[in-house]
Specification:
The chain is mainly α and 285 residues long. The protein is built from 10 helices and no strands.
Length: 285
Amino acid sequence: MPETNNAYRGNRPGESKWRGELYDIIFEAETPAGKYFDLLLIVSIILSVIVVMLDSIGSVRNSYGQVLHDLEWFFTIIFTIEYFLRLLCVRNRIKYAASPLGIVDLIAIIPTYMSLFLPGSQFLLVIRVLRVLRIFRVLKLVHYVSEAEMLARALRASRQKITVFLFTVLTLVIILGSLMYLIEGEENGFTSIPTSIFWAIVTLTTVGFGDIVPQTPLGRTLASVIMILGYSIIAVPTGIVTSEISFASMEERRRTEPQRICPECGNPEHDNDALFCKHCGTGIL
């Protein structure tokens, strides 16, 4: 998918040819050099995330702390060079830097450099928190998911339906939690309505922590109803997003596939195997 609308896409008078070649390598994944660049970058992202994960394990950090530190700086330098190369070969550098993908690229490298300006033991905990931000490097993989744009369109199209669904679920858990508070009471662990609502959310989503358990027959009956209701509710947002993805996929195919246009009325809405126009009946070549 396109990463920026104002990216460098060719040579204009006064512009260097090497910038166009660099753009083809970094942004055009269909070229051989672009494929190798993408493969190298994906491997680097995955390895850098693994380094961050290993560094969070105390025993591994104690044994290989210096190696992990060196690897961290190695990947940071690689991503820094990549970030500036992207800025170098796009026309509107500010727009790309402020774009979601540009911000993710920057977030991937900033924490390591920030740790240089926070020396001293009193800042170690802050540095540790900042190091967790490096896990956002995995978001850079969105550059290489061609369906990400279609998924984003489907989520945007579903937001109103999902909002209504979430409001309905919120209303439901408030009612069910309040009922459970009245049925069970404080003596059975349902000490307040918010606590009972928390139990209703946990039960409705089929998580089931087990920290609060209904004791009365009526409470257990209501809990059983909530559990069964949870299975049907979980499928609703999945169905909403799936239908929007299907619609977006159909629109994408319709946009990319060559259209069969009626020579008589000009209607372009025909199946690939259509022989006659669905509107005027004229034969389609």
